[in-house]
TrEMBL record:
Pfam families linked: HTH_17 (PF12728), TOBE (PF03459)
Keyword check for Cytoplasm: no
Sequence ranges assigned to domain Mop in this UniProt record: 68-133
Entry keyword Methyltransferase: no
One GO process term, biological-process aspect: molybdate ion transport
Domain of life: Bacteria
Record keywords, A-Z: Molybdenum
Annotated protein name in UniProt: MerR family transcriptional regulator
Signal peptide: none
Molecular function as annotated in GO: DNA binding
């Protein structure tokens, strides 16, 4: 299982390195020191932590609509671009490290009051998800 440096954990979770260090210092996220003295987090432990955090958000009651929907992929962020056409609108949301672009009717965008700088949540439900890996394990080289 891979290990991740604090900066890598921060990028994966979408928080600052200082936040990850506070989690480690408080015992909320387990980390050990490597032979160079750098703190590292085991990939399995990080996956469990991220799962628990996702469930904690769902169970907190702060967003009761989430419990009434089968869609679990929610990206809460800031609208960074809106392109209005005659019929359709393209809306871009920056949610932490994630950029989400949605195409919707112009009427829907206007009804939702979507404009640059407004807060919005993109809810993604898909029957087809493509996953890529940064690791070369299992890759065949010619």
């Amino acid at each position: 299982m891979p290990n991740f440096r604090i900066s890598e954990v921060a990028a994966l979770v979408g928080v600052s390195g200082d936040t990850v260090r506070r989690w480690v210092d408080s015992g909320r996220l387990a980390a050990v020191r490597d032979r160079n003295g750098q703190r590292i987090v085991d990939g399995t432990a990080l996956a469990a932590f991220m799962r628990e955090e996702a469930h904690a958000d769902t169970d907190s009651g702060e967003d009761s609509a989430r419990r009434l929907s089968s869609a679990r992929n929610r990206f809460h962020g800031l609208v960074t671009d809106v392109v209005l056409g005659d019929v359709m609108a393209q809306v871009e949301i920056q949610a932490g490290p994630h950029r989400v672009v949605s195409l919707m009717s112009r009427e829907a965008a206007e009804d939702l009051g979507l404009e640059v700088g407004s807060v919005a949540t993109a809810i993604v439900k898909s029957t087809n998800v493509v996953v890529e890996s940064d690791t070369s394990k299992g890759a065949h080289h010619a």
